[in-house]
Amino acid sequence: MKLHTVGILGGMGPAAGADFVRLFVQACADHVRASGAPVTDQGYPEHWLAQLPIPDRSAALLAPETAEDPFAMMCQGLDKLQSVGAQAVAVACNTAHAWHGRLQQTYPQLQLLHIARVVAEGLQQQGQPSCMLLATQGTYRIGLYDQALAACGITVHLPQEAEREQLMRGIYQGVKADRMDQARADFAAVAQAMRARHGDVPLIMGCTEIPLALPGADSVQGLPLIDPAWELAQALARVAYGD
Questions:
Q1: What's the pTM?
Q2: Each residue of 120-133: pLDDT tens digit?
Q3: Is residue 154 a contact partner of residue 131, using CB atoms and an 8 Å limit?
């Protein structure tokens, strides 16, 4: 079996990028185990993580006239990944996929996986008619998941405006500030309110910071949680193993 070199564009934030590598390694082990082969150090594909201090993606989408555009630094990361031989790249940030089309056009020789499409196709295969979405204001603004889910015939339920602000607080004053208890409380409160409105439908944790804090909260026990980073890691593993 010929393994393909793959890359991970991280730094958005660094904890999410580092956690994505863990997920990718787990996905590779699962893939090898499912094939009936033994899991060994030599059985993993070559993979590279580029962690850059990429400007804030939500700020660039919500206030483009004042915020720094992250595109140039994302290109720096892709340049580095391409230079070490990466053939496919996963972007370890949901909101950064607002630039997916522009990045793919700039790097036609790289296969840039699309996180929302991967998630939507997975829910479609499960026969799920609807879901809920926790994400950043930037992700909501561009309709990243709305479009991908609609293309797969899936209805998506979104939080109210005040709940979106609470999610942003959990992301920025919680996870990014290394205050995980604060983050968990904010995320769980929004998830609980949405669950009361829409029932036990799958909940997409559509920001890479959210899965770092929400799972384990009492209010989400029994609720189907979808971690897009895990779905994307599995997709990258399939590409790395040539599936």
A1: 0.91
A2: 999 999 999 999 99
A3: yes
